[in-house]
Design goal:
The protein has one domain. Helices cover 78% and strands 0% of the residues. By secondary structure, the chain is mainly α.
């Protein structure tokens, strides 16, 4: 079989991409997660918290829900249904931190959970902190 014949064979056998359906699923799931965040923000505001405290409480609640649903195995089911819509909101970050920690807990607290907890989210945290330091220095120099 030549390379061209193999490419044609593989193209015919490959599963069809459902891009439009996946985009729609991601849109609705991401929107639902963000709507839940807005509802929590309004609830905390109605309970008497000022805007900053309500935002902090909402973020903490969303991170907790993301980690809890990951630990219960529910977040994976939501991700299968909602595709990339579960990655973008803050719950996706909580999932990225909690999932490796849960997966490697059998290797122990230090070598497993602690070492693997930031294997996915670690680079994001490092670059986020580094960028904020650089931006802060630029702001101090310019202003």
């Amino acid at each position: 079989m030549t390379n061209e014949e193999y490419r044609e064979f593989a193209r015919r056998r490959a599963p069809r991409s459902h891009t439009a359906r996946n985009c729609l699923s991601a849109f609705w799931m991401g929107g639902a997660i963000c709507a839940l965040g807005q509802l929590l923000l309004a609830l905390y505001g109605a309970l008497g918290l000022d805007a900053e405290a309500a935002g902090t409480a909402e973020c903490l609640t969303m991170v907790f829900l993301g980690a809890m649903l990951t630990a219960l195995g529910v977040y994976d089911d939501l991700a299968k249904l909602g595709k990339a819509g579960t990655l973008v909101p803050i719950t996706g970050f909580a999932n990225a931190v909690a999932a490796p920690a849960i997966e490697f807990k059998t290797e122990g607290l230090v070598a497993g959970t602690s070492a693997k907890m930031f294997s996915i989210a670690g680079p994001v945290i490092v670059w986020g902190i580094s960028a904020s330091v650089v931006y802060g220095l630029i702001l101090c120099i310019l202003g």
